[in-house]
């Protein structure tokens, strides 16, 4: 459940929020407008500092800009235009994991990944709408970080489909060096995004990092001071994270209750089925207390061994699903019009609580069931017992 | 002595007549006087635009050729990133050429709302540079003294549809006949932009401001854009070829 729920946040974190992200205070206030004139400056130094001080995360710069994509005719005049959402990610750096986390090699529908700053990937839908071919040149029209009108030529090297509904409808992906040239943003970035190395989203950890960073590095009086946001701080993600946590508790609660009832019932039934055996043991001289304690000890041992075996099998399966996942690509393709950022592959997650959570129903319920069934021992009268044995 | 008194009286009476005449000036005459100062058959000017951004200021230099209200051609001279960028306005069409991309792009639709070179002026502002009398119906709201100078306060309401600013308020200097201060409003009455001008000089027989300040009132913390006219020549012969699209690439 944790792994699947985490998958829902993965898409959002990769496309927009990161597990944590840093921007200037002024940019944060107007972030809906993508105000690159308020972008972070001195990004290389910031990245080096973040990598050193917050090494539990990997950090990557990003530039987001909106503009127009202009397709020229053979005379260089405008043939077609379309609004475009340009995302500049770090594709070329040696240690960058952007191609891996965006799964670009898998999501490439035609062509190849960009190798130069002036090469671009277009979303399949945008590419089809503009009736383009791989290798054609398109002009990106936007504003520089100084607000000046700018045009920049990019060569289309391929197309991608993220299956993210409206999100990638008008998206183009460029290496950040290309966007920096186009928007005159040398050593600047709209945002710096941070991800845990395992890509597992831990809400509490991201909140802790945010608190620590903002306490140490963010000046509330300086508009251009960097400020860190956790995933839950973006748009309505906080509500979703809380809702997710609540749903997890409810599902876990229901599941535990069912398992406990089943195991309790099992303990109860096995106790009741041993009615004759208990009677015999009492008849041959064992005290009621001895019989009762022996039954509980049995229940503890059986519950413990069962839980260890069950946990081992469960964790092995979870680990397999964590590494391989369940691919729902075909099913989700039919939902391509949805606004939700859904992952195509659902992964499980081996979490520390998996190692002990099974003991609660496995041992406790079995023992409780046995204890309840064992109560009958104390209700048995010796006279009645001999009468039963006679028959 | 007697002659001197008579001469003074004559001068005073002429001055009074002149001032009374100015008092009785109609709003349309005011608008015509403004248009006569600001518009001419043709203009060639070099200017400097200082864009005060939220972080830093940039200076953009350009040379512009204008004929009437329909044709304008601007070539940007500096900074290096903008040098060689050209802009052509022909009637209701606007093109821009960037040497980096070697592309001529027509600016239309919502792009007209974008700012020119990051300034507080939009392309729409450039496109709507037309005599006020042709676009607005004016009402005189009163007079105000600003910096010891008398100003007529005019409220202008659009008489044609589709204007970016359906309403304007002008503070017109009674001597220069120039709108020294202006507020531009949306139909709802919300202020969108404000402008002011100073450095008024008599150039070729007309009063003309050499420094304008534009401010986009919707941009929070905007410090505005200064536009300084460094040199200007009115009514110069400009050949038609200056406004051809072919010249954009040259």
Explain this structure.
- The complex is a heterodimer of chains A (391) and B (250).
- Chain A has two domains: 13-235, no CATH class; 240-390, no CATH class.
- Chain A is α+β, with helices and mostly antiparallel strands.
- Chain A is 49% helix and 22% strand.
- In chain A, helix 9 (237-273) runs parallel beside helix 14 (359-379), helix 10 (275-283) crosses helix 15 (382-390) and helix 11 (288-323) packs antiparallel against helix 14.
- Chain B is α+β, with helices and mostly antiparallel strands and 250 residues long.
- Chain B has one domain (2-249): Clam (outer membrane lipoprotein receptor (LolB), chain A).
- Chain B contains four helices and 15 strands.
- A 13-stranded antiparallel β-sheet of chain B has the order 6-5-4-3-2-1-15-14-11-10-9-8-7.
- The radius of gyration of chain B is 20 Å and the shape is globular.
- Residues 6-22 of chain B have low confidence and may be disordered.
- Classes of the chains: A alpha+beta (391), B alpha+beta (250).
- At the A-B interface, strand 3, strand 7 and strand 8 of A face strand 6 of B.
Concise structural overview:
The complex is a heterodimer of chains A (391) and B (250). By secondary structure, chain A is an alpha+beta fold.
Share in β-strands of chain B: 35-45%
Secondary structural class of chain A: alpha+beta
Secondary structure class of chain B reads alpha+beta
> What is the domain total for the residues of chain A?
2
CATH class of chain B, named: Mainly Beta
- Spans where pLDDT lies below 50 across 5 or more residues of chain B: 6-22
Average predicted confidence as pLDDT of chain B = 85
Strand content of chain A: 15-25%
Shape of chain A: elongated
Number of helices of chain B: 4
Tell me the span between the first and last alpha carbons of chain B: 70 Å
Total beta-strand segments of chain A: 14
User: What does the average pLDDT of chain A come to?
Assistant: 85
In the CATH hierarchy, the third-tier topology of chain B is known as: outer membrane lipoprotein receptor (LolB), chain A
The CATH homologous superfamily of chain B corresponds to Lipoprotein localisation LolA/LolB/LppX
Give the count of structural domains of chain B: 1
The count of β-strands of chain B is 15
């Amino acid at each position: 459940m944790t792994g699947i729920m985490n998958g829902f946040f993965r898409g959002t974190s990769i496309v927009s929020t990161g597990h944590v992200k840093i921007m200037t205070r002024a940019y944060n206030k107007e972030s809906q407008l993508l105000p690159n004139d308020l972008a972070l400056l001195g990004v290389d130094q910031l990245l080096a500092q973040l990598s050193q001080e917050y090494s539990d995360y990997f950090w990557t710069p990003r530039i987001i800009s909106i503009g127009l994509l202009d397709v020229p005719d053979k005379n260089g005049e405008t043939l077609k235009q379309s609004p475009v959402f340009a995302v500049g990610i770090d594709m070329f750096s040696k240690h960058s994991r952007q191609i891996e986390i965006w799964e670009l090699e898998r999501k490439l529908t035609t062509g190849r990944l960009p190798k130069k700053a002036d090469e671009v990937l277009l979303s399949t839908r945008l590419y089809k709408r503009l009736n383009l071919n791989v290798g054609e040149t398109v002009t990106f029209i936007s504003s520089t970080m100084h607000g000046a009108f700018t045009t920049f030529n990019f060569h289309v090297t391929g197309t991608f489909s993220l299956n993210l509904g409206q999100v990638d409808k008008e998206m183009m992906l460029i290496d950040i060096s290309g966007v920096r040239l186009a928007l005159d943003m040398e050593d600047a970035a709209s945002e710096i995004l941070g991800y845990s190395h395992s890509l597992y989203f831990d809400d509490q950890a991201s909140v802790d990092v945010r608190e620590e960073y903002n306490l140490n590095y963010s000046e509330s009086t300086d508009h251009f001071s960097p400020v860190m946001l956790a995933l839950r701080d973006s748009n309505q993600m906080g509500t979703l994270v809380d809702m997710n946590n609540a749903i997890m508790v409810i599902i876990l609660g229901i599941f535990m209750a069912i398992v406990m009832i089943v195991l309790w019932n099992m303990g109860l039934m096995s106790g009741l089925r041993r009615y004759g055996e208990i009677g015999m043991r009492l008849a041959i001289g064992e005290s009621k207390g001895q019989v009762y304690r022996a039954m509980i000890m049995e229940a503890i041992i059986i519950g413990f061994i069962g839980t260890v075996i069950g946990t081992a099998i469960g964790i092995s399966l979870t680990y397999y699903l964590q590494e391989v996942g369940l691919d729902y690509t075909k099913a989700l393709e039919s939902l391509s019009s949805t606004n939700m950022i859904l992952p195509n592959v659902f992964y499980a997650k081996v979490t520390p609580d998996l190692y002990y959570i099974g003991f609660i129903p496995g041992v406790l319920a079995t023992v409780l069931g046995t204890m309840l069934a064992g109560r009958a021992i104390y209700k048995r009268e010796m006279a009645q017992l001999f009468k039963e044995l006679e028959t | 002595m007697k002659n001197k008194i008579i001469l003074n009286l004559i001068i005073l009476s002429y001055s009074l007549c002149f001032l009374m005449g100015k008092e009785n000036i109609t709003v349309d005459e005011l608008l015509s006087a403004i248009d006569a100062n600001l518009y001419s058959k043709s203009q060639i000017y070099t200017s400097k635009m200082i864009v005060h951004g939220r972080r830093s200021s940039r200076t953009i230099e350009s040379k512009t050729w204008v004929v009437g209200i329909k044709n304008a051609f601007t070539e940007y001279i500096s900074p290096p990133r903008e040098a060689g960028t050209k802009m052509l306005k022909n009637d209701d069409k606007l093109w821009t050429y960037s040497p980096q991309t070697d592309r001529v792009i027509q600016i239309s639709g919502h792009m007209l709302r974008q700012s020119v070179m990051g300034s507080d002026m939009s392309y729409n502002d450039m496109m709507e540079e037309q005599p006020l009398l042709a676009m607005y119906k004016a009402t005189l709201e009163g007079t105000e003294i600003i910096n010891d100078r008398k100003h007529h306060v005019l409220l202008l309401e659009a008489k044609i549809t589709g204007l970016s600013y359906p309403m304007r308020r002008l503070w017109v200097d009674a001597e220069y006949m120039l709108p020294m201060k202006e507020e531009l409003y949306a139909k709802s009455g919300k202020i969108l932009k404000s402008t002011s001008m100073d450095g008024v000089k008599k150039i070729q027989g007309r009063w003309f401001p050499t420094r304008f300040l534009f401010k986009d009132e919707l941009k929070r913390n905007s410090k505005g854009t200064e536009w300084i006219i460094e040199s200007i020549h009115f009514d110069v012969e400009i050949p038609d070829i200056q406004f051809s699209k072919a010249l954009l690439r040259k």
